[in-house]
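Suppose a classmate hands you a notebook page containing two proteins, each written out with its sequence and a corresponding row of structure tokens. How would you begin to make sense of it? This section walks through that situation. The first entry is reproduced here exactly as it would appear on such a page.
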Amino acid sequence: MTVEAHLAALRRRSDQLAHDVAGLTPTEWTRESNCPPWLVQDLAAHIVTSGRGFIRSIERGLAGVVDPPSRGADDFSGADPPTVASALNGVTDRFEALYDGLTEAQLETVCWHRRGNRSVRWYAAHRLAEVAFHGWDLETSLGRSPHFDSAIARLLLPTLLESNVPRTYAAGLTAERGQGERFLLRVADEPSRAWLITINPDVLETTPIVTTEGDGNVPARGGGLAITASAGDLALLVYGRADLRSVADLDGDAALVDRFAQVFPRP
């Protein structure tokens, strides 16, 4: 997918989120979020401050600096919803402006990231993920039972599964280490689009594959588990926001259903 597609989706989702944040009541603003120990106001502020951190990393990377940037002096203590919403709009404006006119070579420029340095191109997808997932978190915290946007999920799944998830696993963010478990993740209404995940003790390997009619139980024959869900539910699942049994059709080794939650990394 192109950087332009990620930035266009980011603009749409950020605008929607800023509108929602601006209209929050004082009671909603101080409600507990589903990202403890944050309150809703802390979650909203984090969406802004993380964006500012991404901007600093990209600016420094384009300038040839890949050292960790100093933390900004961002402080939204006591800020009201309209103030944070306005700040989010400003961050999205600045983020978009960074990409204006960049060459292909510049898009491949390496920038600092705490889980391994990444390209300017990757940051476009990662910022969309940050806003989309934390936007979902905010709506969930307010009891609105949101769906994860399927178009955004389709844009993000390659980055989530092929880049983010392996590095998150390498950072040790799992309850247990894998022992060679194999999971085939498929998009429900596009079953030919799939990823084979193999989780070994030291590394999580992701292989994009194209399945055909009759291939659904390939992992099962190898002792694995095939997981089929909508694009939105797959995104929520791999980012720890959904329960496997609740959102997916499962085929294969039943023992791996419980193992999934233990060995699959949640950021």
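The notebook's second entry, a different protein, reads as follows.
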Amino acid sequence: MYKKYFPILLAASFALNAMEPSEEIKTGIKNLAPTAVVSSASETPIDNVTEIIIEGPRTGDVYYISDDGKYLINGSIIDTTSRKDITEERKSGLRKEVIEKVGVDSRINFYPDDMKYHLTVFTDIDCGYCRKLHTQIDEYNKLGIGISYLFYPRSGLNSPSFDKAQTVWCNDDRKTALTNAKSGVELEPKKCDNPIKDHYLTGQAAGVTGTPALILDDGKLLPGYLPPQDLLNRLTMLEAQ
């Protein structure tokens, strides 16, 4: 079994004490966006500044607002002593929660015998760099990197890319079907109960905007393709931090 080496960043960054947003904060948000709903509010390390998350399809959108509701801040909080990006750590914690809701049986897994690192990869069968990544899946595995695929058809739910993902899922041998589809093989269309829509919505909630999107088990997002050795170097560097 692979080692879960990343800390739970939600707890490691700073103590987020959830609370009910004040009437001043609610009023401030209503003045900006009358239909917006604050789904959560938490303390921050900065006096008189509250973290808020606006209800919507994306769980990783973190904002800050002055406690009097007058000023909304769309940006990052960085600890100048530790140099940690507190906002990105918070977003990683939120992504982690979203990804963990997807069960192992709802993924297509390519695992090595000795898995040292694990990533969830949002993929689109028609994406060029997704195909390039998959042609090297054996190399990732040889380096101890396990990959769990979730589908993210970039053109949407009612699209040829979605249909191709559905066909792969509905094959008895999904791993072979995925490899063939990414190689350009036209598979016989199939339909069945499948989690492709859930994959897509999970990707949206996690803040995925393109493919391949690589998400570590701590929720950190690495957008875009990385060659096997480069990815290993990146994971090793992150482990050492």
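A careful reader of the second entry would note: The two ends are 22 Å apart (CA to CA).
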